[in-house]
Amino acid sequence: MIVLVINAGSSSVKFTCFDMAAGRKVLASGLIERIGIDGTSMKYTNHRGEVIKGEVPVKDAKDAVKVISERLVDPKAGVLKSLSEVKAIGHRVVHGGESITAPVIVNDQVKATIRECFAIAPLHNPPNLAGIEACEAVFPGVANAAVFDTAFHATMPPHAFLYGIPYDLYTEHKIRRYGFHGTSHAYVSRQAAELLGKKPADIKVIVCHLGNGGSISAVDRGKCVDTSMGLTPLEGLIMGTRSGDMDPAIVWNIMRIKGLDGPGVDNFLNKKSGLLGLAGINSSDLRDIEAGHQAGNKQCTQAIETYAYRVKKYIGSYIAALGGVDVVAFTAGVGENSASTRALVLKGLQGLGFKLDSAKNDVRSAEPRLVSTPDSPVKIAVIPTDEEQEIAGQTFDLVNKK
Ligand code: ADP
């Protein structure tokens, strides 16, 4: 059975085509970027290693899905004989609000809920819905599943999702913590259990998803009980360009100092802050900041230390929230690749049961692995995340249940 996974953003559409019967083999993947801007281009790779790159005449999500569909059946680089082989399409949707707590087959009601969340996810939900509608047009009759970034966090109890502000802001306006990256947190927490030879229901996991965006979650026996991102992805860890947690009064102070209005300060804290703002070397990429640190740039050193300290503080608070932890799992670009960041985050935590094996930590690998010593009371894992595979799996399960 062929499942197509679509991740439609504001200016890009990413796709992965899976053959589920062949062990979820990736037949083809790629992306179309700069949609709606000059120089729209596509990168397409198939399982034979053939790569096609170039400009494409795409002005919206529907054009993008049409071009992707044409590539999939292209006589040379295609991987399908006919588009009728595609039995289901899984979509990443960022915000499902409070009412959607699991992956769902898209119908009018689901689309209405995605639309209701436009106000709290203005950058993500509109293009996500456009991606769904594009697939409905290009693949008529094929089931579309929506897999929500917020869904895995729906099990958080009120004491974790409420903010200390008047209650009617929650009841009337749904201002609360939702959390994001849920597909990754779900996948990695399950993989962590598998790595320990246990069932998710038997262990407590802290997942550190450290990418360009970053979030951390506390997972108690398979259920998320807290996570660092909030109403929007701005809260929590210091990220590539996002500030993460700070005194809310800083918002109006920045407005005054920089002469910004509401949307202006929102943009400032989402796009100009975090590692980019702290390190001051015009890059949000931790590799560049690590290179700056190696070259003796003190501001880069401080940025890295501040970034790691925030992760450490969250780990400590989630050990308290969970009443102990069996395994801490690192994932995403930084979590999977930066051994020095993992070491810095865990430095000084021996008293909490973390014994990092430095030699194992320094080995690079694409496999899920333990980097703690065999006698470490808390296990430390590095687990490559795979949101596309998780979306494909959930889509497959939904369609087969139906
Ligand atoms: P996204 O949130 O965009 O999906 P990723 O999970 O792909 O992000 O993470 C991208 C980030 O990972 C890069 O910006 C970079 O900072 C970081 N990264 C990737 N490889 C390394 C590495 N070897 N060392 C340090 N940081 C890395």
What would you say this structure looks like, in words?
The structure is a single chain. This protein has 402 residues and is of the alpha/beta class. It folds into 2 domains: 2-148, ATPase, nucleotide binding domain (Nucleotidyltransferase, domain 5, 2-Layer Sandwich); 198-387, Nucleotidyltransferase, domain 5, CATH 3.30.420.40. 38% of the residues lie in helices and 20% in strands. The protein is built from 15 helices and 14 strands. The chain has helices at 61-72, 108-116, 125-138, 158-161, 168-171, 182-195, 249-258, 262-271, 274-279, 286-294, 298-322, 332-337, 339-346, 358-362, 387-401; strands at residues 2-8, 13-19, 25-33, 41-46, 51-55, 86-93, 104-105, 143-148, 204-210, 214-220, 223-227, 327-331, 369-370, 379-382. Helix 11 (298-322) packs across helix 13 (339-346). Bound molecules: adenosine-5'-diphosphate.
Furnish the topology, listing elements before pairings.
Blueprint: E1 2-8, E2 13-19, E3 25-33, E4 41-46, E5 51-55, H1 61-72, E6 86-93, E7 104-105, H2 108-116, H3 125-138, E8 143-148, H4 158-161, H5 168-171, H6 182-195, E9 204-210, E10 214-220, E11 223-227, H7 249-258, H8 262-271, H9 274-279, H10 286-294, H11 298-322, E12 327-331, H12 332-337, H13 339-346, H14 358-362, E13 369-370, E14 379-382, H15 387-401
Parallel strand pairs: 1-6, 6-8, 9-12, 12-14
Antiparallel strand pairs: 1-2, 2-3, 3-4, 4-5, 7-8, 9-10, 10-11, 13-14
Adenosine-5'-diphosphate binds next to helix 10 and helix 12.
